[in-house]
């Protein structure tokens, strides 16, 4: 058994030091010696108080997620047993917290009599992000310290709070600037000397009483959260459990929390969200870019283009404290772009997520220019100009002439060939794609496109930059549309056909929102503006019968008050008989027989082709693993987290079933979208998983 717990004595104070790298998760091999240490020190009369602290970079960051669903998770002592034991210890127990006390880690601390932290410590219950609720008393103890409303917001958002706020909220009892363990020992000794009766958190009621008397504000907040959580079960369980903490006796509320936890941990949504947790970390491990490959230093960034995309990209750097030079063609365009950036920060200030000082600091990170020579001192330059190869090549030619040696040159292209772009420079090793998603200052996903010549340390630099600007990076290969847009195209192919054959936009959209998407594709198109796709289609000689006709009639979506829907109030979509008539007319022109289309058919004809395209992407090596594709779709396109991404979902749905239905639709329509990918067919025959297929291929 690894040596995960060390017990020492500082005179009359026992110190339990936990050491289970990398994040001190509460694995069985930590829980067992921890319980033994508590039993020994708890009954030793020479020990007057106990401090629990952690070695390494953080306090306990939670239960060991890899144990969930295995017998180890159930083996005694469980975390609830340890917490119950802690509350019975008849001498002060102090948790000394540095780094992050998360999930089960914070629950362990909540079962101690006191909590102290260092100034950088963070405290949170992020279980909801794993499709869970805190399962070891978090929902029952936290409201007793910080009040039910604050607890509700912390537990349902999963967002940690800092030490200063934790102190103000009563979550911690002291914050120390240095020598955490030394100060915690002194604090514990002082509490032992005081000899005041020890009141475990479970016995505190002062913060609960007022809400028990009038739960209306709490219930309103919980109802709001329930509405926003769409199909996710965990946020609803979190809110109910906090309410139980207020209304039920402690033990009853605790038992109800445990029941919720067990239901959720065995459920498909949590499995999907745990898959995403590990997938995100896996995506950062890139074949051929090992830990020995050091990223290049990035002290200043450059962005070409101050339009919606360029401005958003530049904001990411400013937000992370990295100075950024923005280049535009003219002073007017630059001023317009900078004004938009200023307005975006004003909105954040108005919403309260940023203060005036923060806004000023971010704005001070920007310099504007119309002269390429001013980008000469940038360590990374990202172009966000018009999506046309000739324009991109021209920009990269100019960059090649002025960028300093070793500067990383990135294109924010969403589908163009990065290898061709790289060839317009004399340094293709320094060139790659960095595909942001709109709005670029908000959306988490960053597709890092690796060209055939891109140097490993250039990929490492993009990954390191992504981390600094709080993006979720996925490295992908060169192809039309990369991972995300290529699969989107496969999905979109059938949308128009479904309309012509008899489905209504609102029916299709409802199938998507019932699946858990925040919005259906037609409502989404109206929001983004239908004219964008129209312009692109015209430039590339493509057509879309219904969408083109809508644009020709001046229906560009929300911005013109009508598109696939009518927007009487400017925001709420209502079905429009004019659109129904237009679709029927287009179907008539094409001789399409209209019929009733089932919801199931809509799902099959839109989601299955995405999975099919995903399989092609895997087979071609455009994505390194199926889970990378899931990360792209969840973080860039709003694929429901509770479904775990398209490839995870496909395995649950059944690859065999998907192949059979694709074959059916291929036979019925003859369309390429339904031609089954060889990998998918092999998996259907062998019963293997996407992960095993990849291992076999490696
Ligand atoms: C819970 O507590 C349930 C209880 O309520 C009830 C129980 C009965 N387990 O993120 P990083 C691994 S649920 C196992 O890259 P950072 C991670 O996979 C839990 N492994 O580092 C990675 O492995 P690898 C509630 C874990 O510095 C390595 O550690 N807690 C766990 O960027 C480094 O991780 C949470 O949800 C874990 N709990 O961020 C917190 N955590 O190197 C989850 C991490 O092989 N963790 N690993 O890829 C985090 O949010 C971040 O890891 C943390 C550090 C902020 C702690």
Structure description:
With 698 residues, the protein is α/β, with parallel strands linked by helices. It is 51% helix and 11% strand. It is built from 31 helices and 17 strands. The strands form three sheets. An eight-stranded mixed beta sheet has the order 12-11-10-13-14-15-16-17, sandwiched between helices. A six-stranded mixed beta sheet has the order 1-2-3-4-6-9, sandwiched between helices. Strands 5-7-8 form a three-stranded mixed beta sheet. Helix 1 (28-43) packs parallel to helix 3, helix 6 runs parallel beside helix 10 (216-228) and helix 13 crosses helix 27. The mean pLDDT is 96. The structure holds (S)-3-Hydroxyhexanoyl-CoA. (S)-3-Hydroxyhexanoyl-CoA binds at residues 22-23, 25, 58, 61-66, 79, 100, 102-104, 107, 126-127, 130, 132, 134-136, 138, 278, 281.
Mean pLDDT: 96
Q: Given the helix and strand composition, which structural class is it?
A: alpha/beta
Largest sheet: 8 strands, mixed
Total beta strands: 17
Q: How much of the sequence is in beta strands?
A: 5-15%
Quote the distance from N terminus to C terminus.
33 Å
Strand sequence of the main sheet, in spatial order? 12-11-10-13-14-15-16-17
- State the helicity in percent bands: 40-55%
Low-confidence stretches: none
Rg, Cα atoms, Å: 28 Å
Ligands bound here?
Answer: (S)-3-Hydroxyhexanoyl-CoA
Overall geometry: globular
The number of distinct helices, counting runs of at least 4 residues, comes to: 31
């Amino acid at each position: 058994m690894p040596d995960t717990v060390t017990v020492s004595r500082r005179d009359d104070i026992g110190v339990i030091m936990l050491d289970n790298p990398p994040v001190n998760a509460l694995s069985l091999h930590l829980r067992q010696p921890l319980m033994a240490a508590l039993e020994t020190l708890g009954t030793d009369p020479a020990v007057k108080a106990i401090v629990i602290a952690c070695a390494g970079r953080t306090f306990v960051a939670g239960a060991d997620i890899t144990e969930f669903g295995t017998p180890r998770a159930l083996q005694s002592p469980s975390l609830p047993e340890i917490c119950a034991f802690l509350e019975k210890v008849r001498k002060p127990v102090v948790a000394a917290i540095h780094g992050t006390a998360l999930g089960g880690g914070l629950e362990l601390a909540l079962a101690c009599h006191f909590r102290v932290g260092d100034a950088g410590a963070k405290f949170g219950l992020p279980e909801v992000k794993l499709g869970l609720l805190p399962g070891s008393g978090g929902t029952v103890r936290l409201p007793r310290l910080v009040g039910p409303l604050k607890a509700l917001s912390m537990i349902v958002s999963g967002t940690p709070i800092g030490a200063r706020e934790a102190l103000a909220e009563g979550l911690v009892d002291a914050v120390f600037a240095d020598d955490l363990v030394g100060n915690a020992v002194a604090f514990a000794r002082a509490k032992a000397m005081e000899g005041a009766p020890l009141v475990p958190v479970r016995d505190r009621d002062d913060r609960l009483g007022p809400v028990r008397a009038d739960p209306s504000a709490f219930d309103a907040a919980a109802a709001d959260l329930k509405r926003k959580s769409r199909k996710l079960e965990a946020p609803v369980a979190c809110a109910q459990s906090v309410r139980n903490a207020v209304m039920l006796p402690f033990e009853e509320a605790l038992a109800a929390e445990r029941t919720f936890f067990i239901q959720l941990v065995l459920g498909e949504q949590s499995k999907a969200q745990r898959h995403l947790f590990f997938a995100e970390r896996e995506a950062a491990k890139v074949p051929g870019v090992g830990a020995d490959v050091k990223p290049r230093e990035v002290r200043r960034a450059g962005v070409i283009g101050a339009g919606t995309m360029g401005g958003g990209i530049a904001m990411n750097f400013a937000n992370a404290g990295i100075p950024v030079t923005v280049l535009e063609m003219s002073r007017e365009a630059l001023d317009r772009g900078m004004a938009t950036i200023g307005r975006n920060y004003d909105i954040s200030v108005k919403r309260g997520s940023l203060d005036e000082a923060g806004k000023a600091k971010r704005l001070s990170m920007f310099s504007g220019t119309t002269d390429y020579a001013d980008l000469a001192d940038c360590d990374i330059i990202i172009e966000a100009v018009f999506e046309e190869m000739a324009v991109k090549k021209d920009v990269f030619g100019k960059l090649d002439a002025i960028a300093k040696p070793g500067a990383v040159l990135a294109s924010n292209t969403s589908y163009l060939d990065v290898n061709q772009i790289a060839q317009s420079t004399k340094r293709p090793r320094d060139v790659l794609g960095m595909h942001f998603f709109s709005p670029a200052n908000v959306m988490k996903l960053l597709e890092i496109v690796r060209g055939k010549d891109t140097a490993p340390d250039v990929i490492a630099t993009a990954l390191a930059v992504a981390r600094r600007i709080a993006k979720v990076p996925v490295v992908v290969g060169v192809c039309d549309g990369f991972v995300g847009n290529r699969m989107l195209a496969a999905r979109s192919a059938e949308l128009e056909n479904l309309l012509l054959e008899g489905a209504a936009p609102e029916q299709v959209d409802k199938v998507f929102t019932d699946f858990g998407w925040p919005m259906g594709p037609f409502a989404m198109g109206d929001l983004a503006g239908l004219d964008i796709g129209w312009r692109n289609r015209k430039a590339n000689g493509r057509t879309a019968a219904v969408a083109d006709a809508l644009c020709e009639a001046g229906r560009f979506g929300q911005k013109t008050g009508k598109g696939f829907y009518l927007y009487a109030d400017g925001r709420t979509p209502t079905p429009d008989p004019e659109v129904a008539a237009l679709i029927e007319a287009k179907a008539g022109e094409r001789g399409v027989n209209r019929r009733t289309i089932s919801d199931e058919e809509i799902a099959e004809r839109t989601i299955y082709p995405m999975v099919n395209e995903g399989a092609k992407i895997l087979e071609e090596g455009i994505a390194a693993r199926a889970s990378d594709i899931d990360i792209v779709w969840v973080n860039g396109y709003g694929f429901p987290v509770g479904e775990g991404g398209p490839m995870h979902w496909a395995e649950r749905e059944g690859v065999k079933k998907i192949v059979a239905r694709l074959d059916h639709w291929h036979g019925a329509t003859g369309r390429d979208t339904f031609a089954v990918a060889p990998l998918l067919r092999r998996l259907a025959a062998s019963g293997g998983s996407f992960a095993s297929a990849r291992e076999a291929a490696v």
